[in-house]
Design a protein that fits this description.
The two termini are about 25 Å apart. By secondary structure, this protein is of the alpha/beta class. The strands form 3 sheets. It has a 10-stranded mixed β-sheet with strand order 10-19-18-17-16-15-14-11-12-13, with helices on both faces. It has 2 domains: about 300 residues, 3-Layer(aba) Sandwich (Rossmann fold), CATH 3.40.50; about 350 residues, UDP-N-acetylmuramoyl-L-alanine:D-glutamate ligase (3-Layer(aba) Sandwich), CATH 3.40.1190. β4 and β5 form a beta hairpin. α17 crosses α19. Ligand NAX binds next to α2 and α3.
Length: about 700
C-alpha cells in the first residue's frame, strides 16, 4: 500500500535496476488489457472499448491497452480519445501515440492552435511546439468507415504513419464494419466541444470505458476540461475500468471530487495506493486488482504481498503521504500460523483469561472467550464480577468462570486485580489476558487496569510462571518464560526495578502478562495516558485493538482525523504505546512498535455489528496464548477474523452477527492453511491479484 511519493520512489528504483518507463508501461497496459478482456470482454466493433486517455503516463498506459485490444480484436474494437494535443505529448505517452497510429487504432485528440495561415478545420490543425515535424492529427489516426482518404505524407510529432508498418489486426475485418485502416478520420484533432460530442457518442455505444485520464500524477481536483470529459463518461452509465486509480482520486487520501468516476474495476499498478482504501476510494474504485508490473524485489511490493515480513526497503519510507504498508494475504498469514505438534496438550495452547463482563455486558466477555476457544486457545476463563458469574457460565461448557470481587452494584472492585492474579497463579501454563470487553469504566475497573498494566506500582516476575515451562515441549513458542517481566533473561530478578520483588511479588500484588486491551480497557488506558503504556514493566507483550473512536480517545484526536489519517494514526498508536496497535474498521491496519505497518483488505461492511470487536480481541488473545509474538498474533487474528466474517456472509452487504463469525473461525483457519480464495491463482491471470476478492456467495464477477 503506497503513497504517491512511494510510487515515484519505486519507479526510480525500477529505473535504476534497468526497468525503464517504456518497459513498465508496456507491462502495465498489456496486463490491464488481458484483465479487461477477462472481466468485460470479448470486444468487437459492436462491443467496443473506449479509452479516455490523458497526456501523462496514465494516458500512455491506456494507449498500450488500446493497442493490444486492437491487436486481439481488430482496430474497430477500440477507440481512443486523447484529452491532450498530441504535439504536446512527451516521453512514453508520445511514443505510445505514435504506436497507436502504426497499429491503425482510431483515435481522437484535441487540436492545437492552428498554424499561421492554416485553414480552420479538424484536419488542418498544426500542433504547436513540435517544430518542423508537426503534423495534422487527423492524418495519423484514420477513423474506420470514414470516407476521407488518409492525408498523404503525414509525419507527426510522435512518428510517421506508415501504411506498411506492423498492423497485425488491420487485415482482419472487424465485425460490423469495414477494415479498420481503410478510411481516414472524420473527426480527429478536434476542438473541445466536438471532441466531447464524439466522446459522448462513442461512450454511448461502448461495452466499457477505460479511464486512463489521470493516475498518480494528479494534482488536486480534476481541472475543468478533465472534469467535463469525466462528466461525459459518468453520465453514460457505461461500466468504467480505471487504470491505476479512478481519475482525480487523491492517491494518498482517497478524496474525490464528484466527477471522479465510480469505476466497476480498477487495475492498479505495482502495488495498491492508499487512496484506494481510504476516504471515498473504495466506493470509487470498485473491484481493485493489483497488477505486478515487474518492479524489482527491492521495492518490496510484489503482488499480494507476503505478509508477516518487515517492510524493509520498501518505497515510501514515510516521505510524503503515508508510510507504506504491506497487504496481508492468505499465504503470508499461513506462514505465521502456529503449528500444533502432534503431542500438543492444552497447556501448549495457552490460557486466555478474559477480564470484563460487567452487568449488562456479560455477552461481550462471552463473545471474546468463545472466539478465543474457536481460534485455538487451550483453556479459556471468563473473569467477571461475582454477581454475573452464572450468567457468564451458561454459554459454553468448555469455558471456565472466575467470580471476582464486585461492588454492591456489580461493578468491578479494585480488589479484583489481586484476586485475578491469585487465580491465575493457581493454574499452570501460559496466561494471556484480554482486558476490556464489557469491563465498564468504574473506579474499580480503572484501578484494576492500572494494576494489571503494572502502572500503579513496579511489577515483578511471577514465580509460578517459570513452572509452566515444564508443560511445554522444548521448542514451544514464546521463548520468553515470563513474557517480558523483569528477569526473564535467565537471571531472575536481574533487571527488576529497585524494590520490585517486594512491591510486585506473587504474594501481594498482580503481575503483568501478555495482554490484549480492547473496548473499555482502551478507554481507561486513554485516561491513564497512552504514553504511560510504554512504562509498563518489562515491556510485556501488549496489543491494542481500538476502533476509530477509541483510537481518537487514546491519541487525543478527533475520530474524523483518525479516519482521514488512518495509517498515521495506527503508526502513532503503536509508537506512543510501544505496543502493537490494531486500528479496526474497513481496511484494518496493524502497526508494530518498530514502525511496521500492515493492512487487511478483507472483511466487509456486513461485519459492522456489535460484538465483532469483542470476537477479534479474543482471537488475538488465542494466538498470543498459542505462542505467537504480538505482531504476528495481531496479523493472524485480524485476517482470520475478516475471513470468517466473509465466510459467514452469504453475499456482499448481508449483515453478519458475531456468533456467526465465531462459528466460522475453524473453517477460516483451514482455508488459510490450504490457501484461501482471493489468491492470485484464483483470478487466473498470473501477476494479477484481487485487493479484496468478491465474497463467494456474491457470484464472482469474473467468468
Ligand atoms: N512512471 C512509471 O514508471 C510508470 C507509470 N505508470 C503510469 O503513469 C501514471 C503516472 O503518470 P504521470 O506521472 O505522467 O501522471 P498522470 O498521467 O497520472 O497525470 C499527469 C497528467 O495529468 C495532468 N494533471 C495533473 N493534475 C491534474 C488535474 N487536477 N486536472 C487535470 N489534469 C491534471 C498533468 O498536467 C499531466 O498531463 C501512473 O498512474 C501509471 O498509470 C505506468 O505506466 C507504470 C509505470
Ligand atoms: N466495513 C467493514 N469492513 C471490514 N471490517 C469491518 C467493517 N466494519 C467493521 N468491521 C470489523 O468488525 C469489527 C468491529 O469492531 P468494533 O467496532 O470494536 O465492534 P464492537 O465494539 O461492537 O465489538 C472490527 O474488527 C472491524 O474491523
Ligand atoms: K485513471
Amino acid at each position: 500500500m503506497l503513497s504517491a511519493a512511494a510510487v515515484r520512489r519505486g519507479d526510480r528504483l525500477a529505473a535504476d535496476a534497468g526497468l525503464g518507463g517504456p518497459v513498465l508501461m508496456e507491462t502495465a497496459g498489456r496486463t490491464a488489457a488481458t484483465l479487461l478482456w477477462k472481466v468485460a470482454g470479448p470486444f468487437s466493433a459492436r462491443q467496443p472499448v473506449v479509452v479516455l486517455a490523458g497526456g501523462g503516463n496514465n494516458g500512455g498506459d491506456g494507449m498500450v491497452l488500446a493497442r493490444w485490444v486492437a491487436r486481439w480484436a481488430g482496430p474497430a474494437a477500440v477507440k481512443v480519445f486523447l484529452l491532450a494535443e498530441p504535439g504536446r505529448l512527451r516521453g512514453e505517452a508520445a511514443v505510445q501515440w505514435s504506436l497507436l497510429a502504426r497499429a491503425g487504432v482510431p483515435a481522437f485528440a484535441l487540436a492545437g492552435e492552428p498554424a499561421p495561415g492554416a485553414q480552420q478545420g479538424p484536419h488542418q490543425h498544426q500542433n504547436p511546439g513540435t517544430g518542423a515535424g508537426a503534423a495534422p492529427v487527423a492524418a495519423e489516426f484514420p477513423e474506420p468507415g470514414a470516407a476521407r482518404p488518409p492525408a498523404a505524407g503525414s509525419a507527426g510529432a510522435a512518428g510517421p504513419h506508415t501504411e506498411t508498418g506492423p498492423q497485425p489486426a488491420a487485415d482482419r475485418p472487424a465485425a460490423g464494419g469495414p477494415p479498420a485502416a481503410a478510411g481516414a478520420g472524420s473527426g480527429v484533432g478536434l476542438a473541445v466541444d466536438p471532441f466531447l460530442d464524439h466522446l459522448e457518442a462513442a461512450v454511448a455505444r461502448a461495452r466499457v470505458v477505460v479511464d486512463a485520464l489521470l493516475g498518480v500524477g494528479v494534482r488536486g481536483a480534476p481541472r475543468p476540461l478533465a472534469a467535463r470529459a469525466l462528466q461525459v463518461v459518468g453520465a453514460a452509465g457505461v461500466p468504467v475500468f480505471a487504470l491505476d486509480l479512478p481519475s482525480g482520486l487523491d492517491t494518498d487520501t482517497g478524496e474525490a471530487a464528484p466527477v471522479v468516476p465510480r469505476a466497476t474495476w480498477t487495475a492498479t499498478f505495482a502495488a495498491a495506493k492508499w487512496g484506494l482504501v481510504l476516504g471515498q476510494g473504495p466506493e470509487r474504485a470498485g473491484q481493485v486488482f493489483v497488477v505486478d508490473i515487474g518492479w524489482p524485489q527491492e521495492t518490496g511490493t510484489g503482488v499480494g504481498g507476503t505478509g508477516g515480513e518487515a517492510e524493509a526497503g520498501a518505497p515510501g519510507g514515510g516521505t510524503g503521504g503515508f508510510p507504506s504498508a504491506r497487504v496481508l494475504d492468505a499465504a503470508g498469514v499461513a506462514a505465521l500460523l502456529p503449528r500444533r505438534p502432534w503431542d500438543a496438550h492444552k497447556g501448549w495452547a495457552g490460557h486466555v483469561v478474559v477480564a470484563g463482563g460487567r452487568p449488562g455486558q456479560v455477552g461481550a466477555a462471552v463473545l471474546a472467550g468463545t472466539a478465543a476457544l474457536q481460534a485455538g486457545a487451550g483453556t479459556v476463563t471468563l473473569a467477571v464480577p461475582a454477581p454475573v458469574r452464572t450468567e457468564a457460565a451458561v454459554h459454553r461448557p468448555e469455558i471456565m468462570t472466575w467470580a471476582l470481587p464486585a461492588t454492591a452494584g456489580g461493578e468491578w472492585d479494585a480488589a479484583a486485580a489481586t484476586a485475578l492474579a491469585q487465580r491465575e497463579r493457581e493454574r499452570r501454563g501460559r496466561v494471556v489476558r484480554v482486558i476490556g470487553p464489557g469491563l465498564g469504566q468504574s473506579p474499580g475497573a480503572a484501578a484494576c487496569l492500572a494494576a494489571w498494566l503494572g502502572l500503579d506500582r513496579p511489577a515483578a516476575r511471577d514465580p509460578a510462571e517459570g513452572a509452566s515451562d515444564d508443560d511445554r515441549p522444548a521448542d514451544a513458542p514464546h521463548g520468553r518464560p515470563a513474557d517480558g517481566a523483569p528477569g526473564t533473561d535467565g537471571e531472575p530478578g536481574a533487571r527488576a526495578p529497585e524494590g520490585a520483588a517486594a512491591a510486585g511479588s506473587a504474594a501481594d500484588g498482580p503481575v503483568c502478562r501478555p495482554t490484549v486491551l480492547d473496548a473499555d480497557g482502551l478507554n481507561l488506558a486513554a485516561l491513564l495516558g497512552i504514553d504511560r503504556l510504554r512504562e509498563r514493566p518489562g515491556s510485556f507483550p501488549l496489543v491494542l485493538t481500538p476502533h476509530p473512536g477509541e483510537a481518537a480517545r487514546l491519541l487525543g484526536w478527533t475520530t474524523a482525523r483518525v479516519q482521514a489519517e488512518r495509517p498515521r494514526a495506527a503508526v502513532e498508536l503503536a509508537r506512543r504505546a510501544g505496543a502493537v496497535a490494531v486500528l479496526k474498521g474497513a481496511g484494518t491496519l496493524i502497526a508494530g512498535p518498530g514502525g511496521e505497518l500492515y493492512i487487511c483488505t478483507r472483511g466487509h461492511p456486513g461485519m459492522a455489528s456489535a460484538g465483532m470487536g469483542d470476537a477479534l480481541a479474543g482471537i488475538v488473545g488465542a494466538f498470543l496464548a498459542q505462542g505467537l509474538e504480538p505482531l504476528a498474533a495481531a496479523l493472524v487474528a485480524v485476517f482470520v477474523h475478516a475471513l470468517a466474517g466473509e465466510l459467514a456472509a452469504p453475499a456482499e452487504g448481508i449483515p453478519v452477527q458475531a456468533t456467526q463469525l465465531i462459528a466460522r473461525l475453524p473453517e477460516a483457519l483451514d482455508r488459510i492453511r490450504r490457501g484461501s480464495p482471493g489468491s492470485a491463482a484464483a483470478l487466473g491471470i498470473p501477476g494479477v491479484a484481487w485487493l479484496r476478492p468478491p465474497l463467494e456467495g456474491d457470484g464472482a464477477p469474473v467468468s
